[in-house]
Write the structure tokens for this entry.
Amino acid sequence: MTPEFMFIAFTLFLAGVVAVPVASKLGLGSVLGYLIAGIAVSPVLYWAGVDVIALQHFAEFGVVMMLFLIGLEMQPRTLWDMRARIFVMGGLQVAVTAAAVMAAAMLMGQPWSVALAIGLVFALSSTAIATQTLNEKGLMRSDGGQASFSVLLLQDIAVIPMLAFIPLLALPGLSEALHSGTDDHGGGHGDGHGEAGLNLSLVEGLAGWQTALVTLAAIAFVILAGMYLTGPIFRFVARARLRELFVTAALMMVIGIALLMTMVGLSPALGTFLAGVVMANSEYRHELESDIEPFKGIFLGVFFITVGASIDFALLLENLALVIGLTLGLIVLKSGVLLTIGRAFHLSGGDKWLFGLGLAQAGEFGFVLVSFSVASAVIPREVADILLLIVALSMLLTPALFILYDRVIAPRYSREQEQKADEIDLESKIIIAGHGRFGGIVNRTLQAAGIPATVVDYSSEQLAMLRRFGLRVYFGDATRPDLLHAAGIEEARILVIAMDEKDSITQLTRHVTEHYPHVHIVARAIDRWHVYDLWHAGCRDIIRETYDSSLRATRSVFEAMGYPRPRAERIVAEFETFDRKMMLELADLYDPEETRSDDSTYARHVRDKMPVWEADLNARMRAVMDEDQPDEAKA
């Protein structure tokens, strides 16, 4: 490990560690934090002679890992249900955007072949930035998030035919200049340097039908390996009882799939996504997620930093008005195309704008396609330099578009949902807001007991699936006062708040507590701090989403130690009684504005009381454990 390598790694990590927490604290999100960090360290990287673009291509492996993890969370059936959005919506987006950009480029005087190549470059969006931001903001499962992901998936597929098509657009004069050696950039794209490096392509020199067969065979291998080889391989590795070996095996598998896809000319991100979907039902799914997640975060962070660092500020200042104008024009054009397509596919309100703004940037594959186009004598170098600036700047502006959506557009368009929400004609004394893994169990239990409930959920796809099974559910945003009125909140006795979003749960709790104090609220709490937020908002029936299952797991541990179930239940009950008493005591000291400070009343009280609490709890539990304790438990 050289000092140069350590210096570069230290610089990148230091920039991220400083910039990301600050950006997150200001509500800008981690992606913008990384991009700002890249801009800040770009002079240092250029001073150190770092090839930022090469580093960026290396860091793109974070995108590969991210798509693999997304695949693990997506059942094959879910992917099949999305097929219309992936191929029709995604295909329309790529084709229409490419045609619109091509027309604009021709109006600016570019030849049709160069204009078409530019259109293909700008038809793609950033999988890394859009997916990371959607996940970070909890928007991936919304209708707009699912539509965005479907289009991004098709774009990854479209890269392959684009790479095959672009060389056919070569300009004769530019091609002669390249072959005469005036431009040696882009050798990594197969422009005659194959003899000097390792060529691992499995399809080079094959006829079209042979390439198709090899490609299909590679995809079939990935699917079959994911279904039948993953289990045996990981069981074999698990026998060594070395966690680092399991992590190594997980990385080996992801890298191997990415390599195979690259060898047959496919997108490595697409291949690993497919493998993740196949392994979604694997017994090792959660282990794979936990092993890959940290590496994904590191690689993605470095990738975003390199995007910020790749901006050529000298060229930008020389062409400031042109580059900014073209970047904003691209965002407006792509947003217009996306909004039109979203409307055609029945996206409405905030979801339509999330789809339109979230994919309005150019993508990381744009760097690859621009360099490839230069190497293939399609786009002149001076045009390519401007295109690279537009790609980088549009990605840099994407977090700002999400902030615009969060703070301006989404609140305003939530009023439009009044006309889109279902007509609620069921009279019930119980309202359930959110029908996911939490609210669904509540609803099913009530139905089994013959007790009707009015169920409201904001995901039209989720409700369509539920209606296929005969469940009576209604579409709408339960945080809207008018929809609560339509659901019968004035006559309701109980409101179960089971939504996924922490802030939405707290907002709805506060609203109902203030305006409908007669309604008993049963609220889902995401974590311990959320319990205090809900208590402060006025709710007194708070259910921590993993608390009861954790207590049951603890009871099982004591049973496995040899304690009879009644005693194991009493041990756990002692802890639960103590924990609830402690939380009630602390809840009265909670202040959302200052509680998390080390100097707050809450923090000082915990520090003072903790030794006494722990001693009291230990004595209570030991008293129960030592009563006629079985020999095997004592052992």
Summary: Residues 182-196, 416-426, 631-635 have pLDDT under 50 and may be disordered. The chain is about 70% helix and 5% strand.
